[in-house]
Amino acid sequence: MLEALAAVESVKLAPEGGGTVRALSRIGYDLQDALADLIDNSIDAGAGRVEIIFFRDDEAVTSVTIADDGRGMDRKALKIGMQFAGRTDHAASDLGVYGMGLKSASFSQCETLSVISRQGGAVSAARWSVEQIDKDWSCELLEDDGAEEAFRRLCLPSKRPATGTLVVWDRLTRLGVGGGDEDLDTFLATAVSRIEAHLGLVFHRFLAQGVLTLALTVKHVRRSLALPRTVKPLDPFDYPSSGAAGWPKALEANLPGVGALPMEAHIWPAGSLADGYQLGSRSGGAYQGFYFYRNSRIIQAGGWNDVVRNDQDPELILARVAVELPPGGFGVNVQKSGLQVTAAQAQALLRAAGDGETFETYLDAAREACAASKREGRAPKKAPLVPGYGIPVGVRKSAAKRLAGEGPAEVLDFVWEELDDEELFSLDLTDTRLVLNKNYRRAVLGDAPASGADVPLIKMLFFLLFRDDFERLRFSGKRAAYLETCNALLLDALRK
Hints:
Strand content: 15-25%
Number of strands: 19
Largest sheet: 8 strands, mixed
Structural class: alpha+beta
Radius of gyration: 28 Å
CATH topology of the largest domain: Heat Shock Protein 90
Helix content: 25-40%
Number of domains: 3
Strand order of the largest sheet: 5-4-3-6-2-1-7-8
Number of helices: 15
CATH class of the largest domain: Alpha Beta
Shape: elongated
CATH architecture of the largest domain: 2-Layer Sandwich
């Protein structure tokens, strides 16, 4: 727009050090994401073993080390590695993307970052601190003898690698725990378990193939004994049998700016307690959605990226889709914990097809598998459906007589609860309820008072419109789209 304006001067505007560090500390890394980013560097360096040690005393975690037996770096390579967004030539097969991982991940957790690396019989060491960055962006190069001693003492002490790299986080900013020794023990037990599950998931292909070993250790600074925990692979697609006949199936999406993207659509068996389904949580249903892999590493575990409206759709808890990204990746965030998908790319994913199926028929199959599992636990609705709680008693009795006569009936209740802003109503097929959005209750009622049996005409119209859905106990993709359209039209009318 303004390219034609002439420049009268050029000035160098270096980033302000303190502001840069504060930004890095809030860039959005969880501890497990930060550690995974450093493990990426180890894998790119050809490491077969990575060990993470949390050093603690009686009151706090004092430092964290990440050590590997990769090929290491000489002084020139170390300087490039320590440079922010340094010009590192990544191969297409590398896990590194931006040249920022070591620094951004580290300063999200600490105020002093030291790196010691051994290659060709020589050790090189460097250190960043927030003070040096704030002062003049001077990275300190450390003396060789002390660095050699620290490398031998701290870098995989049980293995003593000839080459490798040791990363040390000091002056930790995100691992403080209030209270006493018991609080610290509880925190570390929880944190290490969470990290173990996360790393086991993100790197499950490497771990299962035996090309990588990961270990986690908590070591008291005054005690010699510390037992490492070996991270086991957590494969999100490791089930004994499919939850729906004919699945998984291969699909392909043609993404603008990316090209053909291979996908494999899976349906888990219902009610699974397998580690691969639970993934360290109490409910594996939270992990429905896309699993984006780049060079065998998981970039995103679950979520629908606006392809499906609700990332936690109760009818899609069995649905998981493995997506293989091209080596260069696309839209990967700095933390490598998620994917930024454009609206056009989301539409392309929705149009994926192959193997005689489309993505929408896959979603229908996953919904049907979920509904079938619920039907197994209860008898089919043979009795006619009648309006229940939420309708005036006299109207309920009259409706029951007209619809069920003197025989048994299934009751549909009406409740006001908080829903998404784009929903006026929602059908709860599991508990046979029609839920109205209480955020719009006053707009619906007008001047009428609120009560348990308010707006009976509107509720009865909803009953007549949607009672067949409760008989079927499931939504097809087409029917779900119709319900979304109904919501949109009714809200348009309500907001006028």
